[in-house]
Amino acid sequence: MTSGRRARVGVVGTGWWATRVHLPSLASYERAELVAIADADPERARAVGERFGVEMVFTDHAEMLRERLDCVLIATPPVAHFAPARDSLLAGADVMIEKPMVVDSAQGRELVALAASTGRRLHVGYAHLHSPHTAQLTALLADGAIGQLRLVTSLYANPSGALYAPLDPDRAPDASDAMFGPRFETYGLRKLGGGQAHGQMTHSLSLLLAVTGLLPREISAYTWGPGIEVDMVDAAAITTHQGPIATLASAGTVPLGAPSFIQLTAFGTDGYAVLDSAAGSLDVIGADGARLDIAALDPSVSFPGHLPARHLVDCFLDDRVPVADGSLGLATTVLIESLLESARRSAPVGVPDLGRSTR
Questions:
Q1: How does DSSP classify residue 291?
Q2: Nearest by Cα to 272 from 154, 156, 145
Q3: Which of 117, 163, 233, 335 could form a disulfide with 187 if both were Cys (CB 3.0 to 4.6 A apart)?
């Protein structure tokens, strides 16, 4: 471990999630020095700089990158992830991109290749993968705790539907813990990467790929979103190169204030496992019906939203491998592209080769 040194961090994008989660996490972390921020909106950038005590404020990320940064966190709208990520890698920084990594797999492949050629770390902000239960389930499945995997089903449902139409103040998510509320343009416009698949189902897809290491072969999918430009409900069945089948579903129709659903269930030849991140529980039942004694987690631990930003810093200082790396971000993007194409065609489509297991 590198002792005493702090990582110099810059943040690109100062909207809802950045001011709610990433900036407070970095500003309060003793191993991080929050050096600079960049946002295309000069007034917002200035206000955020004042709130978090950041003196160097820019409207152009390229200017920010002249400040010899160790790490850059990108929290712009999805279609604006690529350029600052590419430029940050070329400037020699480790990079974390808020999910989804990109909405164009060609850009994702370029970023993964660039990270490899520059020797920099590329992270994606999938907070669920930082939960102790996720790591525990990954290890249990790899050790054959439920035998040979046969079926995996993943569900992610939340109130995100309120974001897919011009925001009604009475239906908008609570933004009292952030400097700014969510913008309809980010979530509700297809050209900006909006919709349930890119914005929300990406969580369950990345969780499935990371925990199981499965390589999708073919996907058959459906989407629904009447009266809006983007998808609000998605469902898919996936065949894999290893043999197991996976089913996925995601809906943005949960009422505001009601509990969300963040679940992954794995069925094997000798038992099953149920990960429920919303409830903070992990249940594993063996072939003899015996249940493993696994302690429940507090919601702040089950969904550690503050950890991806700090993990970016820790990996840089301690020369560690990211929990959610660029290869996983690319694989998730490829699968979402295939899902949306299948839904558009109303037919199964082959999933392009992801190159290797994502676990």
A1: B
A2: 145
A3: 163
- Residue 196's alpha-carbon distances to 130, 163, 190, in angstroms, are 22, 10, 11
pTM to 2 decimals?
0.94
Q: Which two tokens stand for residue 302?
A: 């089950």
Is the CB of residue 166 less than 8 Å from the CB of residue 205? no
Lateral strand order in the sheet of 149-157: 281-286, 271-276, 261-268, 149-157, 245-251, 233-240, 216-224, 349-350
- Complete domains list, the chain, with CATH: 7-127 (3.40.50.720), 128-302+325-350 (3.30.360.10)
H or E element: which one contains 312? helix 307-318
Token look-up 């009292």 returns 176
Q: Where are the alpha helices (DSSP H) in 177-281?
A: 184-188, 196, 202-212
CA separation for the pair 295, 305 (Å, rounded): 20
Q: pLDDT tens digits, residue range 239-267?
A: 999 999 999 999 999 998 899 999 999 99
Residues 244, 219: Cα–Cα separation, whole Å: 13
Name the token pair of 217: 């072969």
